[in-house]
Predict the 3D structure of the following.
Amino acid sequence: MLSRYLLILLLWSLISINGYSQDENIHCLCYLEGDNSPAGLMGVHTHEKNAWMVSYTYMRSNQLGNQWGSNLMADQNVLDKYLMAPQSMNMDMHMLMLMYGITDHLSVMAMGTYSVNSMSMLMINTLPMHMYGMPDMTMTAAGMMNSKLSGLNDAQLFLNYSFIQTEHHTLIISSGLNVPIANIQKKNNMSLASLQDYTYMMQLGSGTWDILPRVSYVFSKEKLFLGMQAGANFHTGYNAIGYRADDQYSLTAWMAYRVLKPVGVSLRALYVQSQSISGIDPNLNPWVEPGADIANYGSSTLFILPGFNIYPGFINGATIGMEYSLPIYQYFHGIQMPYANQWNIKAQIAF
């Protein structure tokens, strides 16, 4: 389905730039000083030869409760099938990105991230507990269990090529590679689950070399910017544990407007489709919690993301941006935790 969107986006972009020449170069979305694209979006521009860009992004993601299909589920309904019912999951991610212009039309981009994932779950009342020797687990008097996992995520490398770059139109083709450096074999130290692995959704990486294709189109005229981007994450095989993580497809459309020289606003819609997991982690007990059961993976979600950018005039090429993500449609295969909200805050400088 998303492959058709990629083809439509490419054809539309090629048709729309008819009549313009490659010599009418605008070398990124920062010709008004600073990056005009939304804070949570990457890969929508290239840089001039020998130009650099460095950015730091903080992302906070919050998930609350349980949902099956498009319907919310009560805790008791989850506990009828599993020993624990998830209550909340938070992810705090810190990402450093470095981008360099190899030529005027080809840039290389490298990203490294560090995440802290935490989850709270409601225990079934009849479970016997033995909580000694569990540094990653705490239990409250109310029967709540809290788990946390932190560490480096997989690294990602991209080549971005400005296939077409004119005064008003830009078409970027990106080829990305996921480098599996994250440790996916940390133990959860749960006595009731016999020191099982962390669930699939808590893991910091896929454990495989993955292909990350992406195509981006941007129309710009004076202070107005309109764009679309389609991308995917294709896992190349099964990891050392024995499963293949869920493939993902995304499509986003956005607009940005430079209200004043130091301020811009943006609005973006994002659709994400996740597939099911293949294989299984033999160190997970699927009856313990929904996240340990591969039947509870695969989803379709639609988000709306308002945002703004600030351009401090005393630092050339600097941008500080923020996006706030709200879900407007969520459909899950099996029992999963719906998204409540997400923050993206980015600071970057090009030189």
